[in-house]
UniProtKB/TrEMBL annotation:
It is a multi-pass membrane protein. Keywords: Cell membrane, Membrane, Transmembrane, Transmembrane helix. It is found in: Cell membrane. It holds the Pfam family EamA. This is Threonine/homoserine efflux transporter RhtA.
Length: 345
């Protein structure tokens, strides 16, 4: 009995600690909901873009309009964040440009190119090979073999990729679409790497808006010199079972799939941390399948769905290994910091 009382006393929380714990739990729950909402709205981009592309829009025009429209909507809150700190843009122009060129322009353009040849969900699954590409690139550059769980995750994702391609099935895939999907994965890998860099002087909203502006300017500049076809049509666009004006699909692409998606993604990362938010973001693949089925009438073959599960499982294993390694390093650092504090005293 005394032992039981001692355990309760040792584990009891003060009133302030209990209040802080409850507040943190509520924030985590709210962050989880925001992250899930972000995945849902991000998943609509392919389903909003494909009818525009089928109606005669080029990928360059659709991507440029999406990025420019979203940047203009986010411009006022970004200017508010920057008030009195304009130098942060010039101090961080390199990550902003890198993010805009590869993480935004290359990634989105390649994805929109891919959905012209592939189902939306298949194109997105190819793009989500990005974390595996990061692992392979790190292996080549550092010449250090990844940990076992990371290797297992990479192998699982590669097996999933083979199943998604369904090279022997009746549905099959277009090799050109596969190429564009993998290029989108390279752009997304840059998106992850730049976005994960710790930089207290660069607000995430500034990075997002700056990247969108850089990407839009790049698209329209390439179009102006004739290197990128820029064509748009202004009639109706066809979804599965209904039609809408072109501007309605474009508004969905800008407001829902870009502005709401990016802003909620930033809020989720702040509430949960980048690692946990990125885990929940993997549900985007599932929601993309649902949106494509509801809006476009597209459904991958069963073997492709199995492959998609393998890709997501592989990425989860890689992310779980990263999280475990980060916790291990944190535990190792704590004794050193405690010892340093004792010596200081």
């Amino acid at each position: 009995m005394a032992e039981r009382v001692g355990q309760v006393g040792a584990g009891a929380l003060s009133a302030s600690e209990a209040t802080d714990y409850a507040g943190q739990s509520r924030r985590n729950l709210a962050g989880f909901g925001i992250a899930l909402f972000s995945a849902i709205v991000f998943a609509t981009s392919g389903s909003f873009a494909k009818p525009l592309l089928e109606a005669g829009w080029t990928s360059g025009a659709a991507v440029g309009a999406r990025m420019l429209g979203a940047a203009l909507v986010l411009l006022l809150p970004t200017l508010w964040v920057l008030r009195g700190r304009w130098h942060t843009v010039s101090d961080n122009w390199k990550p902003i440009v890198l993010f805009g060129v590869f993480g935004v322009a290359v990634c989105q353009f390649s994805y929109f190119q891919a959905v012209q040849y592939l189902d939306v969900s298949v194109a997105l699954l190819l793009e989500y090979m990005a974390p595996i590409l990061i692992v392979l690139a790190a292996w080549v550059v550092t010449r250090r073999s990844p940990r076992l769980l990371t290797i297992l995750g990479a192998v699982t994702s590669v097996v999933g990729l083979v199943l998604v391609l369904d090279v022997t099935g009746a549905k099959g895939v277009d090799p050109l679409g596969v190429m564009w999907g993998l290029i989108a994965a390279v752009g997304l890998a840059v998106f992850f790497v730049v976005g994960a860099q710790q930089n207290d002087s660069l607000n995430p909203l500034v990075l997002t808006t700056g990247g969108l502006l850089v990407g839009a300017l790049l698209m329209f500049a390439l179009g102006a010199v004739g290197l990128l076809p820029m064509r748009a049509t202004f009639g109706t666009v066809n979804f599965s079972g209904f039609e809408t004006p072109w501007w309605a699909a474009l508004a969905g692409l800008i407001v829902v799939a870009a502005v709401l998606a990016y802003v909620s993604g930033i809020l989720a990362a702040r509430a949960l941390g980048a690692t946990l938010a990125s885990f929940i973001g993997l549900t985007e693949v599932i929601f993309a399948v649902c949106w494509a089925w509801l809006l476009l009438g597209e459904m991958p073959a069963p073997i492709q769905l199995l492959g998609g599960l393998c890709i997501v499982a592989g990425v989860i294993l890689v992310r779980a290994d990263e999280l475990r390694q980060a916790r291990r390093l944190t535990r190792r650092a704590r004794p050193h910091s405690a010892t340093a504090e004792i010596h200081h005293l």
